[in-house]
Specification:
By secondary structure, the chain is an alpha+beta fold. It is 36% helix and 23% strand. It has helices at residues 2-31, 38-46, 58-69, 97-108, 158-164, 177-188, 198-202, 215-226; strands at 48-51, 54-57, 73-75, 86-89, 91-96, 110-115, 118-123, 138-139, 171-176, 192-195, 205-209, 235-240, 243-248, 271-272. The chain is elongated.
Length: 275
């Protein structure tokens, strides 16, 4: 009698173990992103997504995208160094997934394409990097809560023009360039976007003083000094509607001055490199 009871107990326990094992397999299969049909993938790419602002490491960010949207985002090369790259933004609010992909690729030198029901990432060649996406839900780094609404004004935005003349009181000591730009945006009250790959720009240390300098002088100093960074083309800035954008100098202009931008008389400080 005792032996029969033990055998029955073992049998019941075995059933529970098998049930848990099967449930685990089902959960893994459900969690793994499936290959979508072309129609499903198009619809998913057009669907708006929302993410907090900050610095997003590509591999971790796209893992989250897969969980949220069911769209599998993969690097063509498993050992791609860009997996550890990151892009920064002030926030993503109800932006189509395809636009978010453009943003991430634009800032990390990648391109994306749909392949076999998934999104595939690979390094972009000359002229293949997506253009900077223009969407009101993309909040720029250092946007101090300002959000672009509706179409861009036909002429220079009065708020931006006024901000360029604002006198600053700011000093930086080995401050990452992204943080410097964010601080300038907060002090001037206008969005300033750093539209450049994280390396070398985002974390590049800067030591300088902008005390008594206008925002325009500060922007020109950053642009001119950036041309001296070894192995880099340098940065240029421009007014873009209600915001200011810093971008990498195009190949055709590398080594030249920023159009009508002229460095202020006398250096504002020691420069890049955190000396």
């Amino acid at each position: 009698m005792y032996l029969r009871a033990c055998l029955m107990l073992f049998a019941v326990a075995g059933c529970f173990l098998r049930a848990e094992e099967n449930a685990g397999k089902d959960a893994v299969q459900a969690a793994a992103p499936k290959n979508l049909t072309p129609k499903e993938l198009r619809e998913a790419l057009d669907r708006p997504v929302t993410y907090k602002g900050g610095s997003h490491k590509l591999e971790k960010f796209f893992t989250q995208v897969e969980q949220d949207t069911g769209v599998s985002v993969r690097f063509k090369a498993q050992d791609a160094p860009q997996k550890q790259s990151a892009f920064s933004t002030g926030g993503i609010q109800q932006v189509p997934l395809r636009t978010v992909l453009d943003l991430a690729c634009c800032m990390t030198g990648l391109k994306w394409a749909c392949k076999e029901g998934k999104v595939e990432l690979e390094p972009a060649g000359a002229g293949e990097v997506p253009k900077w996406p223009d969407h009101p839900g993309l909040l720029p780094l250092g946007s101090v809560g300002v959000r672009t609404q509706g179409p861009k004004p036909a002429g220079p935005d009065p708020k931006v023009e006024k901000a360029l003349s604002a006198v600053l009181d700011a000093e930086f000591n080995s401050t990452p360039l992204s943080k410097l730009i964010e601080t300038l945006a907060q002090k001037a009250g206008v969005p300033i976007v750093l539209q450049a790959p994280e390396k070398p720009w985002s974390a590049l240390p800067v030591t300088t003083s902008f005390k008594g300098k206008t925002l325009k002088q500060a922007l020109e100093w950053v642009a001119e000094t950036s041309r001296k960074v070894p192995g880099a083309k340098g940065l240029q800035w421009e007014k873009a509607g209600t915001q200011i954008v810093f971008a990498v100098v195009p190949d055709a202009q590398a080594g030249k001055k920023n159009g009508n931008l002229v460095a202020p008389a006398g250096p504002a400080g020691p420069g890049f490199g955190g000396r």
